[in-house]
């Protein structure tokens, strides 16, 4: 949330944002420079529209929020494929999706009501 505040309130200074590296499942701090003349910043994250705890304050820091709502089967297939691509066996990937990713999907689903735009299906 501090990063979103810095981006919104920057006074002519470059703001540095982290970059997530899926291959090591870690963010590298200060990897992305956002100069003051950048007119549009796009951020993404599962919890940005969550209406609980500290996450509930994020929505007010966003000018516009979009919620991507792909078909459930397509979402699962993409997640499994991504986990396999980054080292899990197909069985491990399916189990991870079932136990972790699907819980997250259920947790964030109500956030679509806080979005300005809901994109249904496969926008690609």
TrEMBL record:
InterPro entries: P-loop_NTPase. Gene3D superfamilies: P-loop containing nucleotide triphosphate hydrolases. This is Nucleoside/nucleotide kinase family protein. It comes from Rhodococcus opacus (strain B4).
């Amino acid at each position: 949330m501090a990063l979103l505040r810095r981006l919104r309130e920057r006074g002519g200074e470059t703001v540095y944002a982290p970059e997530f590296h899926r291959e090591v499942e870690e963010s590298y701090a200060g990897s992305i420079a956002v100069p003051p003349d950048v007119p549009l910043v796009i951020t993404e994250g599962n919890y940005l529209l969550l209406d609980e705890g500290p996450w509930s304050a994020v929505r007010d820091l966003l000018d516009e929020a979009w919620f991507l709502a792909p078909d459930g089967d397509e979402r699962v297939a993409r997640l499994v494929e991504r986990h396999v691509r980054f080292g899990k066996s197909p069985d491990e990937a399916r189990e991870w999706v079932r136990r972790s990713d699907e819980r997250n999907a259920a947790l964030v689903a109500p956030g679509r009501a806080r979005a300005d735009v809901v994109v249904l299906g496969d926008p690609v």
